Write a sequence for this structure.
């Protein structure tokens, strides 16, 4: 772990938590896809410019779990239309990893709100344990009924 004048480098702590979450999900739920979205980090100006041109968007959460929460059978999905359903159906789960005292940026809040409106569950988690609990809760119904 990299030390700084404040003690511990917060990005390294977030990275370690994120790695632990990904490892946990891949071991416990091998049929569930989870991946990191590497939006952050230091980049030179040319690389940052190219990534922006390629479509990188500030505020996109760190992790995505590509599994719908459940199928309620009670709504029709139309392309491009947000789904609002009393059954709490979600198309997938986005997680923003933060250090213990981390704060969400305005861009992160804006993107999370847009993703929620589009039918995705979005959570900010401040430790690997919290993220693991969120994922376990999210997948509980699906795992029980789909044999994951």
């Amino acid at each position: 772990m990299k030390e700084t004048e404040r003690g511990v480098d917060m990005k390294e702590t977030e990275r370690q938590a994120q790695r632990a979450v990904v490892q946990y999900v891949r071991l416990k739920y091998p049929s569930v896809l989870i991946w990191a979205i590497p939006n952050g980090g230091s980049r030179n100006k040319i690389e940052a410019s190219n990534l922006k041109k390629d479509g990188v968007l500030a505020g996109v959460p760190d992790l995505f779990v590509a599994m719908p929460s459940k199928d309620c059978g009670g709504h029709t999905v139309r392309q491009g239309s947000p789904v609002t359903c009393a059954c709490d159906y979600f198309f997938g789960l986005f997680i923003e990893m933060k250090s213990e005292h981390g704060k969400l940026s305005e861009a992160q809040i804006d993107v999370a709100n847009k993703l929620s409106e589009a039918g995705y569950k979005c959570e900010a988690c401040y430790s690997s344990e919290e993220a693991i609990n969120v994922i376990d809760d999210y997948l509980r119904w699906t795992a029980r009924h789909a044999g994951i």
